[in-house]
Amino acid sequence: MDEERIAISADRILYVRATAGLYQQKIKKLSYTIIKRGFDIIFGTAGCLLLLPLSAGVKAAYLLSGDTAPIFYKHKRIGKDGKVFDLYKFRSMVPNADAMLAELLANDETLSDEWDKYQKLDNDPRITKVGKLLRKLSLDELPQVLNIMRNDMSLIGPRPLTIGELDEHKGNHNIYESVKPGISGWWAANGRSDVSFHERLQLEYYYANNASVVLDAKCIWLTIITVLSSKGAK
To answer: Nearest to residue 119, comparing CAs of 212, 179, 193, 183?
Structure first.
């Protein structure tokens, strides 16, 4: 009987410890979610205030170059839990960029191979002069502060992919879509266009599996360094 009581007591202790551990994990996750969203709102509000005068400047620059098309670009992307949303950017390419890309890839095997590997072109002929400057300064992503305010995105997280893009590269939806996508993230802070798409996925998976206040702070710091050095910007 004594041995049985000891065994029951040991099981209860293990159960209490396990329950306490799960409770602590939930509290930690909830605290992180609240802190992250609070910071996103602060950043998003400041970004919206900056977006107004910058939009006027971008529009003026395009008009001076003879381009009268809209300066904002909207594209369907995949967010947390597979949710589809409209991602906003400053247009950095010619208005018929999608049709032009299809023609380029169909007629140039080298460009097609490059696109398959990186999902980008090193010397993309579709990018406008204004767009090159926006990308060089990483300002083309600024309109995504609107996505942050709408809670589609966060400041830090995996970059949102296009519909079907993850399946095309045999990616893991459960990991990639377990967190909100971000304007910047572990991939964006560690090479951006200088790594292959497969390497990019591994970096994004790392963030999704290890998201924390500390990792977010590292991403912000590395992103600042990357943007100032223009490393990987294309």
So the answer is: 193
With beta carbons less than 8 A apart as the criterion, state whether 191 and 212 touch.
no
- The tokens describing 104, both together, are 């380029």
Torsion, Cα 53 57 62 68, to 10 degrees, reads: 40
Angle of the 213-229 helix axis to the 197-210 helix axis, nearest 10:
150
What are the Cα distances from residue 105, in Å, to 97, 111, 137? 12, 6, 27
Q: Which two tokens stand for residue 110?
A: 């080298």
Mean pLDDT by 10 residues, the chain (234 residues): 57 64 77 94 96 96 93 94 96 88 87 82 88 90 96 96 92 96 91 77 95 94 81 54
**pTM (predicted TM-score):** 0.80
**Strand bridging mode 84-90 / 72-78:** antiparallel
Q: Phi, psi (5° rounding) for residue 106?
A: -75, -25
The stretches of the chain forming alpha helices (DSSP H) are: 2-64, 97-107, 109-118, 129-136, 145-149, 165-168, 173-176, 197-210, 213-229
Q: Which of 183, 146, 156, 139 is nearest to 45 (CA)?
A: 146
